[in-house]
Write a structure and sequence with these properties.
Number of helices of chain A: 14
CATH class of the largest domain in chain B: Mainly Alpha
CATH topology of the largest domain in chain B: MetI-like fold
Order of helices and strands of chain A: EEEHEEHEHHHHHEHEHEEHHHEHEEH
Largest sheet of chain A: 6 strands, mixed
Number of strands of chain B: 10
Structural class of chain B: alpha/beta
Strand order of the largest sheet of chain B: 7-6-8-5-9
Number of domains of chain A: 2
Radius of gyration of chain B: 29 Å
Shape of chain B: elongated
Shape of chain A: globular
CATH superfamily of the largest domain in chain B: MetI-like
Distance between the termini of chain A: 39 Å
Helix content of chain B: 55-70%
CATH architecture of the largest domain in chain B: Orthogonal Bundle
Radius of gyration of chain A: 21 Å
Oligomer: heterodimer
CATH superfamily of the largest domain in chain A: P-loop containing nucleotide triphosphate hydrolases
CATH topology of the largest domain in chain A: Rossmann fold
């Protein structure tokens, strides 16, 4: 991975909006094929950073490279055809049907109509929407969750090497949000594309990110795996940012989060006799099991991905700061 | 109700014609307004300051009273459908511009961002995203404009553009309520039907909208084209001023022209308007010929050098002819015999009693004069002002409308009045003209005026009209006016009788 050329690279990028300094001296390399999450509070500069990738916002200073070539040297419109974009406001074109919305970019890329129609149907099926039923509907006839599913596959339809997500789920209710997060992970695993995902929700970042960049006041504080961020925060801000996610509703926290953030451990030889949990099971269930046994295994598709004991759970809970 | 129905049956051909004219004017204006306002508004969405300015301008344009706007346009583009369409376009600009601008401006910015982020070009964004989203708002603006246009287009009749307004005007003129109702109801129905059609387009897809507009345009051009082709004969338009005399004259012109040149048809526009209105119409080629008086040419139409007073009738005519030719490239054909001029008139008994023959004779009875005259006559230098000066009189006249003045003469409320020398009332009321031996009143001889181009390319028309040269005496004209005004004969019939009896027209029957 490390030897590969970054697909996107920020070099000493600065952005000013009039008097305001939005981004100061940003250096960041995004690797091909990774799901990179930028997380931060509002005004941290995360969305600005994202929009500089497809040049909706142009940097004041510094260079951004796409596969080693400066963005300035690209024709903006053809560059954007290769960068998928999912918006927080979803922004489906209201006068177009579902199929027409999804076909927007394939049409601009002059893909044959038949092929586009096939892609549309297959993508609809992949996100759990029956093509027969949904193809010719108008966006206004869909629920919010359904609309954002279309928003996602619209960005994916032309198989762009990189897709940008700008807080896509923040306006959706928690259940739909969880479903769509799973969907993004699925699609990412199937398509092997690069995703840059912006959110203000650390939980979402921890769940989705291969790597996470934490931003505050125009600075990138730390870029690391979820595990490293939880275990080795570079400063108090990052530590607090993570701690904040622990604090909320401990009982419903999925066990998967503890795996991601490094609170589980591996064993050379498992006995396979421990009680088993899956990633999406909650800590509440873990508490019940751990009240009787010393450790439990956490499984992902019948594979043990880690073990959890009482000490680790207490350690996780102790991250809550007053 | 029966009268209404009968009038409707009576007028249905004319109604259809008027409806078609109305539709033509309205839709042409609408299409032009769309072509101007929509692209302008789209452009303005990227130039906010300009948009504000344009909104102001179009709002101001809309506040100009339509009647004033039509009037202002006459000196610029003449009369007929052109100024009517221009005025209607001006009215239609605001709603179309405003709605297009607002429709596009109010599109959710996130949709604009999405379109940009997907790599759409500005044109693609416009046609695939912005216009489809703004379409219902744009179309509702077009609908507002259309209803406005169809209603206002009734005023087009005032400047000779025809349409349903003709029915309303004619109805007012003839005090015929049925005509007014027919004109108004048809105009309202037209607005409702067209508005409904557009409402249907509002919910339709962009493609359907474009197709429908296309069909309308093609059908329109087709029908107009067919009409043009199916009218192989050249059409000469002859108009006349308000009143019986010009009406009789233009009917004579028509008969004479159609007798000698079979390749043309003549359309008459009687009671077309006042002097400057007709002259502008001729200049703008909305009409081809109209009868005019030599004196009027010198007084009101040409910029004449030198003194016009004390010219003989012939000198006046020659000067008018030369000036028209020099200044407007117009041909003034040979004049008829009669002279229509201003006159001071008294009742025959009154003239006898005081032995009045000339205007100068009034001096002796100045204290007994009770004069009633038209406002125009009182204020003209070749009217009362000139008379008082030249004849050393001090007549003070009360101003009254022309027909009231005759009524007052008849009743003896006044004893001196002004008149036109060919007015039928002179005969009817037994009035005597006082001789103007000091030539204050310019001698007015009538003759057809037309463009030089028409005259040189249609020698047959010139020859036909010249047959009237030196014909028709003052008495003849008075008699004919009397027959039309008092005996209610049709102008066409009176004109034809004269021509036949004087051997100018072969009796067809």
């Amino acid at each position: 991975m490390t030897n590969k050329q970054p697909i996107i690279e920020f070099k000493n990028v600065r952005k000013e909006f009039g008097e305001n300094l939005a981004i100061q001296d940003l250096n960041l390399a995004i690797k091909p094929g990774e799901l990179f999450v930028l997380v931060g509070t509002s005004g941290s500069g995360k969305t600005t950073t994202l929009k500089m990738i497809n040049q909706l916002i142009t940097q004041t200073d510094g260079d951004i490279l796409f596969n080693g070539k400066k963005l300035k040297e690209f024709d903006k419109q053809s560059l954007r055809l290769d960068i998928g974009y999912v918006l927080q406001q979803i922004a489906l074109f209201p006068t177009m049907t579902v199929a027409q919305n999804v076909s927007v970019i394939p049409d601009m890329k002059k893909m044959p109509k038949k092929q586009t129609a096939k892609i549309v149907d297959s993508l609809l099926s992949q996100v759990g929407l029956d093509p027969e039923k949904y193809r010719d509907r108008l966006p206004s006839e869909l629920s919010g969750g359904e609309q954002q599913r279309i928003g996602i596959i619209r960005a994916l339809a032309a198989k762009p090497p990189i897709v940008l997500f700008d807080e896509p789920f923040s306006a959706l209710d928690p259940i739909v949000r969880t479903q769509l997060q799973d969907l993004v992970l699925d699609l990412h695993h199937n398509m092997h594309n690069t995703i840059v995902f912006v959110t203000h929700d650390m939980d979402e970042a921890l769940k989705l990110g291969d790597r996470i960049g934490i931003m505050s006041h125009g600075k990138l504080l730390q870029v690391d795996t979820p595990d490293d961020i939880a275990q080795h925060p570079v400063n108090e801000f990052v530590e607090n940012f993570f701690a904040g996610t622990v604090a909320k509703n401990v009982f419903e926290t999925p066990v998967g989060k503890l795996i991601k953030t490094g609170y589980t451990y591996r064993k050379q030889t498992g006995t396979n006799l421990e009680p088993q949990l899956t990633e999406s099971d909650t800590l509440e269930m873990a508490f019940q099991l751990l009240s009787k046994t010393a450790e439990v295994s956490v499984n992902r598709s019948d594979q043990v991905v880690g073990y959890l004991n009482r000490q680790q759970v207490i350690r996780y809970l102790s991250e809550v700061k007053r | 109700m029966t009268t209404l129905w009968n009038t409707f049956l009576d007028q249905r051909t004319q109604l259809l014609q008027a409806l078609w004219e109305h539709l033509q004017i309205s839709l042409t204006a609408l299409l032009i307004a769309i072509v101007i306002a929509v692209p302008l508004a789209i452009w303005a969405t990227h130039h906010r300051n300009v948009a504000e300015f344009l909104l102001q301008v179009t709002s101001v344009l809309q506040t100009i009273p339509s009647l004033a706007l039509l009037g202002l346009l006459i000196p610029l583009v003449g009369i007929g459908s052109v100024p009517a369409i221009i005025a209607l376009v001006i009215y239609a600009l605001l709603p179309i511009f405003q709605n297009t601008y607002v429709g596009i401006d109010e599109i959710d910015p996130s949709l604009e961002e999405a379109a940009d982020a997907f790599g759409m070009s500005r044109m693609r964004k416009l046609f695939k995203v912005e216009i489809p989203i703004a379409l219902p708002v744009i179309i509702s603006g077009i609908r507002t404009a259309l209803v406005l246009i169809v209603g206002t287009a009734t005023l087009a009749a005032l400047i000779g553009a025809g349409g349903l307004g003709n029915f309303i005007l004619l109805g007012i003129d003839q005090n015929d309520t049925s005509l007014i109702v027919i004109g108004a109801v048809t105009s309202a129905l037209l607005a409702i039907i067209l508005s409904t059609l557009i409402k249907f387009l509002q919910t339709a897809r962009l493609r359907t909208v474009i197709a429908t507009v296309g069909v309308i345009v093609v059908g329109f051009v087709g029908v107009s084209g067919y009409q043009a082709v199916s009218q192989p004969k050249e059409n000469i338009v002859i108009a006349g001023k308000l009143g019986s005399e010009p009406n009789i004259l233009i009917h004579m012109y028509k008969d004479l022209i159609e007798q000698s040149d079979k390749s043309v048809t003549v359309t008459l526009k009687p009671n077309f308007g006042t002097t400057s209105f007709l002259f502008n119409a001729l200049k703008s080629k909305s009409i081809d010929i109209y009868p005019e008086f030599s004196g009027t040419v010198l007084e009101s139409l040409v910029k004449s050098s030198g003194n016009n007073s004390n010219l003989s009738a012939h000198e006046t005519y020659v000067k008018a002819r030369n000036d028209l030719k020099k200044q407007y490239n117009m041909t003034y054909l040979k004049p008829m015999k009669y002279q229509n001029t201003f006159a001071l008139v008294v009742r025959k008994s009154f003239a006898k009693k005081y032995n009045l023959k000339t205007i100068g004779d009034l001096k002796s009875i100045e204290s007994q004069i009770k004069a009633g005259m038209t406002l125009e006559f009182i204020n003209r230098t070749d009217g009362l002002k000139g008379i008082n000066k030249k004849y050393d009189l001090n007549i003070k006249a009360s101003s009254m409308q022309a027909s009231l003045r005759y009524e007052a003469l008849k009743r003896g409320n006044i004893n001196v009045g002004d008149a036109y020398s060919t007015d039928s009332q002179l005969k009817q009321l037994d009035l005597v003209m006082l001789k103007d031996n000091k030539h204050v009143f310019p001698p007015y001889q009538g003759a057809p005026v037309m463009s030089e181009k028409l005259a040189s390319s249609h020698p047959k028309i010139v020859a036909a009209l010249n047959k009237l040269a030196g014909k028709i005496s003052d008495e003849d004209m008075q008699k004919m006016n009397y027959e039309v005004n008092v005996k209610k004969e049709s102008a066409a019939k009176v004109a034809r009788q004269y021509l036949i009896s004087h051997g100018l027209l072969e009796d067809a029957k």
